[in-house]
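User: My notes are a mess, but here's the protein and adenosine-5'-triphosphate's SMILES. Can you give me a structure?
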Amino acid sequence: MDWLAENTPRIVVQLLSGLSVGVLLFLVSSGLSLIFGVSRVVNFAHGALYMVGAYLAYTIMRLAPGSGPYFWLALLGAPLGVALLGLLVEVLFLRRIYQAEHIYQLLLTIAIAFIIGDTVRTIWGAENRSVTRPDFLTATIPILGQAFPSYNLVILGLGPVVLGALWWVFYRTRWGMLVRAATWDRDMLGALGVNTPLVYSTVFVFGAWLAGLGGALVAPIQGLSPGMDASVIILAFVAVVIGGLGSFFGTLVSAVVIGEVQALAVLNPFLRQYDLVLPFALMALVLIVKPVGLFGRPE
Amino acid sequence: MQGALRKGLVGWRVPVVGVSVLAVVGWVLFLGASLVFPKLAPVFWVQFAIDLFVLTLFGLSLNLLMGYGGMVSFGHAAYYALGAYASALLVKKAGLPMPLAFVLGPFFAAGGAMVFGFFAVRLTAIYFAMLTLAFSQIVFAVVFKWTKFTGGDDGIQGVWPIKALAAPPVSDNYYYFSLGVVLVCALLLYLIVNSPFGYTLRAIRENPRRAEMAGVNVRLHQWVAFVIAGFFAGVAGSLFVFFQGSVNPDYAGVARSTDPLIVALLGGMHNYLGPAVGALLYKIIFFYVGRQFPFLWQLIVGIILLGVILLFPGGIMGAITERRWRRLPFGRRKGVPTVAPGEVETPTGSSVGGGNGGR
Amino acid sequence: MAGDKVIFACKGLSKAFGGLRAVDGVDLEVREGELRALIGPNGAGKSTFFNLVTGQLRRDRGEVYFNGHRIDGLAPYQVMRKGIARTFQITSTFRRLTALENVQVALFVHHQRHLNPLALFVPGHKSMAEQALHLLEQVGLADSAHKPAGVLSYGDQKRLELAIALASEPRLLLLDEPTAGMAPTERREAMALIARIARERGLTLLFTEHDMDVVFGYAERITVMHQGKVLVEGLPEEVRASPEVQRVYLGEHG
Ligand SMILES: Nc1ncnc2c1ncn2[C@@H]1O[C@H](COP(=O)(O)OP(=O)(O)OP(=O)(O)O)[C@@H](O)[C@H]1O
Ligand SMILES: [Mg+2]
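Assistant: No problem, the inputs look usable. Here's the predicted complex:
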């Protein structure tokens, strides 16, 4: 009890920061889940797209370090750039393997991840870089006496906004309804007389856009590192798999859970040691108990 | 006509190494060349060859799962690492002699595969891949963090083979040792994939539901395959640890798990020797290109993979030999009516002559 | 010809998909050696019924007995090992294995070679090849023994399925539309073949079929399903004369 009383502020702050990690993770993994839901392709290149988003944002922000307008410009431009790249990838490669066995799909997206990853490292170099936050978001805000970065607060605020926007897109637009229909039953699209390839492409591009947005938002927090594609893709997969592939809601829940678990693990010396593996242990546990994830449907 | 058929049966597919003349000649040449190789080649190439043997065995073991069983494991390095660590620890902590540790190591890998595989085979396709990945990450985290026992990040050093195998000139004896071990293991794996067990495994790959309906306990079968594959990955790991003289967490890393995947795809996963050919090519490309441009290595691998998947889904061996594979991954949905494995019958599927029969 | 022994029976077998009662309290008894047709319009629940019997779908309610044993709740492979075999409405074979290998695998499994450690190093392509070829001959597919199953014509794949099913020496054979997708002449041949094999081996046959010529030409008894329920059961003449059956079928046509 004493421990709890003493540590409440730390716990609260960790919970908040875990939540912001969860929001970022959700951005990335929701795109992954979306793409899988419609095309049944597990996109291992998603982490690479996210990395491109981060590096593009960095490049834009560096034009005027600390500038607010450039920050917003980066948030706008980087995801667009990634979406464009996504379009390219989809049209050139993915489109050709929707019918193939999943072995080939997996390996193809891994190949694309390799290619994009090394290209990024060639263009931007392999050093770690930090990204200057915009001036108006450099301050920390005291929460229960603990300093909490205002940037993370903005991300926390962004969470509900993004969620609302996604909800609107999927439940209020025709495109969104098509996507949901396709997720539910792939053959339905053809039966409805819809231009199926177009839906697939737009879904992939939209997923890429989300990955780019995640990357752009994360850059000022975690900086840039050449291995960020691999680390995020694995975590995003864990989130999607725990939630159940193709389930948006599941992805949301598990992204937040993973963010929180990692944040809270910091408080315990033993768990902190094993923070690397916690998400995996969680995933293994979920899969063992529920083979299709928390909210997934059997194939 | 009867006679011709029966004859076709006999000539059909070379069963054990060396039935057709060409195969005998090929194997004799290969064996002869590999026996004299260390006498002629510089040390570097001898070590290159050992490395290649290990990767070949690793790739072959994965391909039992992937090519024959249709199960894509993203965490095969877990069993490689378990074999390697078990052997190293048996020597270092338990003080066992190297030959014993070498023999026992793979059994620990098989034990790990038994535990992990029990859960993994309950899942399908991508979930299977993710769970195997998760298990390998767990192995990675344990050997990485359990510093006292496994040496953590630094791993375990000074794990050398017995004198006879380590005798100078440094790698020659170990070369012969690896060659022998890998050949024996490859032969065993070959026999396994061509046994009734292997054929049943292929049937499961093709159509698990149909296999189940033929009376196959699909999960049990897959589990056994998983354990066998884990065992041979463990042999590869043990072999490598005594070659390197050390083991570290990278043995369980993601990159180590993608190596055999790439090798099998490159060489052709529907051909028994595919992974061997793939390993050779992979190592050669690495030597001539990857070493010069280490920062572009993944890019190169990625481009090659793309090319193989889009142009030669059967890999090199597929392109060379079995023509009937060539069209399969992409073309097969067009010509022939098909049911994807596990697909649920569509109630409207009574097709051509179906409809209502009230005539 | 049918004996007196009831080899297969189910009571109150039910399965709903959401609100749809695909199979709704089906009672059925089949006597040993009988050739029984299970007919009904599209969506009547015939395939679902088969899937329940074989354990591929989990039943909501009901009991299934085979040869005196209760078999509901068993996994599909366990059901198969009790002596039931089936074919599928949409052909289901091991596409990239040759026709011969398809049958061999079924034989391996039946003779428990596939998980026998002693057989782990026996060349599989030689094992039981003679028997497999013999089965292919029986279904008229010997010429295509070395072709991959996936390239066979639809009708030939159906034959291959039959050979696979026969490999396990079943006592009850469930055939889901064995002649669907065949040309009219081919259908009669195929069904004649099936009936002959069944009689030779004393097999009990339960088959669904939309082709009424085939049904009335070969079935000894007919069960008519409609909307998940058994509507009528009886001899072919009785079924043909049944006003309910006529209504169901004609009603479908509008
Ligand atoms: N897996 C499933 N999920 C949901 N509904 C299903 C499923 N399988 C079958 N159904 C529904 O159950 C009903 C019975 O289907 P079933 O395939 O058993 O009919 P059938 O008598 O075999 O028809 P047909 O003559 O067309 O083969 C149909 O309305 C079908 O849409
Ligand atoms: Mg049906």
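Residues 1-83+170-254 of chain C form a domain with the Rossmann fold fold (CATH 3.40.50.300).
User: Great, I'll file this with my notes.
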